[in-house]
Amino acid sequence: MTDPQKRDRPWLMRTYAGHSTASDSNALYRRNLAKGQTGLSVAFDLPTQTGYDSDHVLARGEVGRVGVPVGHVGDMRTLFDGIPLERTNTSMTINATAMWLLALYQVVAEEQGADIATLTGTTQNDIVKEYLSRGTHVFPPGPSVRLITDMIAYTVGNIPKWNPINICSYHLQEAGATPVQEIAYAMCTAISVLDAVRDSGQVPAERMGDVVARISFFVNAGVRFVEEMCKMRAFARLWEKVTLERYGVTDPKQRRFRYGVQVNSLGLTEAQPENNVQRIVLEMLAVTLSKDARARAVQLPAWNEALGLPRPWDQQWSLRIQQVLAYESDLLEYGDIFNGSEVVEAKTAELLAGAEAEIAKVLEMGGVIPAVESGYLKSNLVASHAARRARIESGEDKIIGVNCFDTTEPSPLTADLDTAIMVVDPASEQSVLAALEAWRAERDEAAAQESLAELKLVAATDANLMPATLACARAGVTTGEWAFALREVFGEYRAPTGVGGAPVAVAAEPGGELEQVRAAVAATAEELGAGKLRLLVGKPGLDGHSNGAEQIAVRARDAGFEVVYQGIRLTPEQIVSAAVAEDVHCVGLSILSGAHSELVPDVLKRLRRAGVEDVPVIVGGIIPAADGEALKAAGVAAVFTPKDFGITTIIGRIVDEIRLANKLQPWTPAPTAATN
What we know:
676 residues; 5-stranded parallel β-sheet
């Protein structure tokens, strides 16, 4: 019998959570900790992530939807009320505004009487990947790297147990990255960050080992169990090599590859969502079974995330999955069970070689920042994602319940869809706005403005921005005010979309679906007297998850459409202006944040006000069935959700809606010649 004293300590168990208001999220965190969760993982709403106050025009409909709104130090106090930060390991998924949120966190910890040198946790703070995947970037790459560098230098000196950044390959996989690309592009980001810290002069050369020791990674684990596990072993080997050879870190403990993981949300299906439970379990095993490459922290999505916002019970289920593995199984009683496996060794070596070759290519371009600015990385990700979607559509990649084995018994889990997910009370947004107005009215306005003026002065120099940011936090400055002060100095940035450079993913084979859709597009354009059909793909609001929009844009282009796609973060007014200026035949809106009920009707009203009556509006995203019916009743022509995996089929539906709106007869393909 194994000695229980020899069991390894379990990884940190987290649940990614936050919604509605700081007080609602505080109650949720307390409940989760009471259920045995060993660390907090804070989800912030999109206005907080992108540096807007809740009352900004772009924040409409987004407040408290995908996370908790934190507008100032008062909100942070409420968020952690009764939770001793000195004894809590907190992960904060925040990037462009990471410095600001860490400052708020430090101030609240000080108010609690904590020694900030003892604080443990992580700020995500990988702004580079935001240009490629999630889209919550604010500033251009140069200033963004400066913010990261300043935070790392500050934490190494003042909060030495804090991880000031975790390099995120998670979102690269969701944007289409292959395992090789995921390893390579994340490592290129790490190299860029470490080079910037080393070259800034803020950290003495002899302390670079301390910097390396606090760099963590946040990765994705898909359902291809063996490949994903080998990916993590390759990651660990490559990190050992890079930190030793490039940065001269000789202490093996400082070179240890430290990573947290959320398993793949992209692979969760709306169809037969109960299958997501076994997907989540397999993906968790990929990052826990191999002791030599085991995650330090794990957070699992809930089975119903493809349907909407999970309920507390759904999150509890995901936590219990981790606890059963850690405490009931014998996993933690053994060394690495894969050492000596020829299969694992060969696959690990293959991924490592591919990643090193791609890293060399990026470094030849001058590093990850030039590769972002040129569009090279984004185009590669869009192309990889398009190829993956094409394999699903063709049936080469099998998704149970989606493109095979799709007959099913009625599910008791989704018998009542309205209660199978959590719905954020729309009234909570109004309460947040009222509280924000009261905060501004009650603070010392002169002190707030003085601290903002000082922040802008410091931003125009090479001095570390963290002390000035802390002063803003203490003076009651808001999230939007801090971010807009830096926008004045640094400017804003719109990242390349990658759509134009993406290659054709699906060939228009004779008699195939794409060839038929191309014929329908051409025929419809001719009947309307247009050179080409024009499709506007719009991302209203702050939702930066653009993968779906990009895939629609690429496939529509391949089907013969002229595509107008201006990227993310647009107001309904900007989308309607573009639709009118470009004289488009259809407007397609993509929203995954839950803000569709606010933003889509606004676009419809503005189109009607502009006299546009014959342009159908279609919507795609994570949209509950009841909301989809309400959107159709408001005038939306069609609603697409994750269950609609056939992109070419969707493009064909768009053509149908254009014909219907223009009172054309349904298009039928020309008969093909009979064959014997």
